[in-house]
Every structure is written in structure tokens, then in C-alpha cells.
Amino acid sequence: MAKKHISLAQAFLPIAVLIPLLAINVVVFGDNSLGGANQFVLLTAAAVGVVIGIRLNIPYHRIFDKVASSISSTSSAMLILLMIGALSGTWLISGIIPALIVYGLKILNPTIFLAATTLICAVISVASGSSWSTIATIGIALLGVGSALGFSEAITAGAIISGAYFGDKMSPLSDTTNLAAAMANTDLFTHIRYMALTTVPSFGINILIFAVIGLFYDPSQSEIQIGELITAVESSFNITPLLFVVPAVVIFMIIKKVKPLPVLFIGSLLGGIFALVFQPQIIEQLAPKSNSYVEASYITIIDALTTNVSIETGNAAITDLLSSGGMKGMLNTIWLILCAMTLGGVLDAIGSLQKISASLLDGVKSNGGLFMRTVASCLFVNVTASDQYLAIVIPGKMYEEAYRNRKLAPENLSRTLEDSGTVTSVLIPWNTCGATQSTVLGVATLAYLPFCFFNYLSPLMTLFFAYFDIKIRKVSSSK
Question: Which pLDDT score is estimated for 224?
């Protein structure tokens, strides 16, 4: 039977099913919606797409060939995510992440508190790859420090979130960073280097604004209770500048354009070796008491690489920060990617993405217009689907072909997805990110929103670059 052409209503139907079900999940499950509820909803929307495809006389096997191809395109990203989990575990037990916390806290000064806060959160988030854990741990501590100094909780929360989401964008350990690169079909470190062109200026303006506020702000001179946080970390770890050798080696390999998987693998192994050298007490704390030190070391390092590990410090806030899920902790994200790519493959097979893209792209006559539609789509998905991952996945699949047709390098798409999808999710009260951070910090989303300078400078910066044709990389016609 001849294949029928899909209508715009049919093209939108799977998304029309997806969005309200995702909204229900946010209400019912809250931040646990990523634990499986959203994955099932993605598959439900995919099933709707399969039914539409069959009604359009598209063979069942062709639909699932597209699904297989879609999932295959992210296989490298999923392996990278597993290695990210491994690296975060060994960097924790080796003391690398704790050292970043200690040295970061020691630079605090009332005049530069806001600028220092956003920098500290940026450094820790880049090191950990997680804005959520940074905000939920060191962010809470810094919020208390800000209150003691006389700063409003709203402005301190803005500084914390701005810094944490810088790391969520720029860290090779971040799942959204890997996801954006995968959606645009570009290399992780190419994506990060290209994204720095818009992210660094946005973050620089953000720091400057906080620095100016700090200069003209007159906080009270209450004593900072940060010493106990530093003591809690230093009593558990041997903190030394030598620990920064490992991040330096990783950064050097990145600069030399070594592929992500070898970089992360080597970084993970070096973290384990440094744990043996600098943190024998952590090995003894985490390992079964009956084992020899050699066996205990092996068990502890393998556990850090693969499963949950947590360091008890006696301070609840720091103990929460000093935990990692290893490779196992990445499985929910990988599960989400598998389900999202299944939906993407189905929508691609039935022509839904092409039909929606053609409708949205109708009348677009410039690259700037294409970038604007991409930014608007990311914001739309963040508002309606309430999930930053989907704000990357859905527009990524929708616009990939449009960027390719305009001879725009794929990193243009990946950068725009992160500049507008990742960082704006926390500004929406009913989005999983906005709801979570508001609850964690105890500050209403609309209260901290005006002070999240980095989060709304990012999409504005990417549009500025697009409309003035600044650093918009093209693909040569010979490729």
C-alpha cells in the first residue's frame, strides 16, 4: 500500500499526548519523575506515533529500524556517561572534589562574597558535573553565610544558581552537556569549546554584576560560620594542592583534543591511584573491616567507580555533597536517553519531526531566524514539558536537519540547545529544576529569578552572536 502523507495534526498528536502526561508526572512524582515515570510516558508517546505510522502505511520494521538507528547514534554518549560516573566516584574518594570545596571556601570575603559564591559554585559544579548536588549542598551552606552577612536570600540564591548552572553547561561530567552534544551529533569537547564562546562572556558579565553589587552593598559584620564546614572536610581528607595534578592532566588532554572516553577513563584511574596515595583513611573507612589493605583498596576503588559511595564527615551538608553514584548513578539518565531516542526515532520514521519543523521554519529567511526558533522551542518545551532533558532532546531532533541544510556546523545547534534549554529550566516554577531548587534553597523561584543573571544572559548571548554572525561556524561544501 502507498505511504500516506502525515498531516500537521497527526504530527503533533504524540507531543500532545506527551506534554500533559509529563505535567501530571511532575505534580504526582515531583523530582522523582525521572526515576521511571517520564521514561514510560516517552514510550507511551512513541506507541501513539507507531499507531499513526501504521495508519499511514509505514511498515512496522521501518519504524523500528529508525528507532535502532536513533539509539545507536547516542551509544558513545551513553558510554561517556558511564565513565563520568566512574570518574566522579574516584575524584571523590581521592579528595580532589573535597579539595576544591576547601580552597573555594577559604577565599570568601564579605565584599566579594556574591562574586566568590558564584565562582565557588561554578568550580564545584564543573568538577562534579551536577548543578543539583552543588545547590543542594554547598549552595545551602553559602545561603546561610549570605544571611549571616546580611545579604537577602534571593540574591544569594541567584549567585548560587548562576554558578551551578555554568558548571551544568560547561562540565564534561554533566549529563545535559553530553546530551546536547549527542542530539546535535557533534563531539563532546568540540561542543564545550564552541559553547565557551557564548558562555564565558555571559558568565563574565554575571560575575561583574555580582562584584558591583558587592561593592555597593553594606552587609552586617556577623561572624561567618564557615570554619566548621572546612574543618569537617579537612578532618576527613588529606587536603593538598598536589590533588589538582589529576584535573590538570585531564584539562591538558582535553586541550590536546584527546577523545572523551580515553580522557575520562584515564582521569578515573588517576583518581583511584591518588586515593591510594593521599587518602588511606578513606579506604579504611569505606572498606569491609575484615579485608587486607590491598583487598580493601581494590574493593573501595571498584565500588567508587561503579556504585554508591558516601563519606561520613559529621556535618550533614558536607556528607550530602561527598557522595557519588558511580556508573550506577548514571543509569537513570541512560534510561531516559534510550526512551527519548525511541520516541525520536518513531517521530522521525513517521515524518512527524519533518512536518513540525517545516511548519515552524516557514518564513525563516536567515540564520538568525533559525537560532531564534531554536531558542523559542527550547523555552516552550521547558515551560510545557517541565523537563530540561526534553528541552534538549525534542528541539535537537526537530532542527538537526535545518542546521545541516543551511551548512551550519552541528556545534551551532548543540550550543544553542544548552544556551537556551539547560539554563532556563531553573527559572520556571513548575519545571522539575525550578521546583526542586526553590524547595532546596527555601527561596521562591520568582524571588531568585531576577538575580540569576547568567541564566537569562545565556540565550540572549547566543541570539546576539547569531544575528551579528559572530563565530557562527559553517560546514564547507566539500564535506
Answer: 45
283, 296 in Cβ contact below 8 A?
yes
Q: Write the CA distances from 421 to 39, 50, 167, 390, integer angstroms.
A: 19, 27, 14, 9
427: nearest Cα among 444, 449, 453, 460: 449
Query: What DSSP letter does each residue of 124-140 carry, written as one string?
Result: HHHHH--HHHHIIIIIH
The span from the CA of 295 to the CA of 475, in Å, is 53
User: Would you state the pLDDT for residue 351?
Assistant: 85
Measure the CA–CA gap between 55 and 180, rounded to whole angstroms: 32
Provide Rg for the chain, Cα atoms.
23
What pLDDT sits at residue 478? 43
What is the model's pLDDT at position 325?
A: 82
Spans of the chain below 50 pLDDT: 220-224, 478-479
pLDDT in tens, 340-371: 788 878 888 888 877 877 787 777 778 888 99
247: CB partners within 8 A, 6+ apart:
96, 127
Name the strand (E) or helix (H) holding 324: strand 323-324
Which pLDDT score is estimated for 221? 43
Helix/strand/coil for 392: helix
Cα gap 412→475, rounded to integer Å:
11
- Comparing CA positions, the residue from 160, 155, 153 lying closest to residue 125 is 160
* Phi, psi dihedral angles at 475 (to 5 degrees): -100, 130
Residue 291 confidence (pLDDT): 66
Indicate the SS3 state at residue 472. coil
Locate the DSSP E strands across 190-301: none
The single-letter code of the amino acid at 281 is Q
Q: What is the pLDDT of residue 452?
A: 96
Query: What's the full length of the chain, in residues?
Result: 479
pLDDT of residue 1: 62
How far apart are the C-alpha atoms of 403 and 396, rounded to whole Å? 10
Q: φ and ψ at 110, to 5 degrees?
A: -55, -40
Q: Is the CB of residue 102 less than 8 Å from the CB of residue 230? A: yes
* CA–CA separation, 77 and 72 (whole Å): 10
Which amino acid makes up residue 149?
L
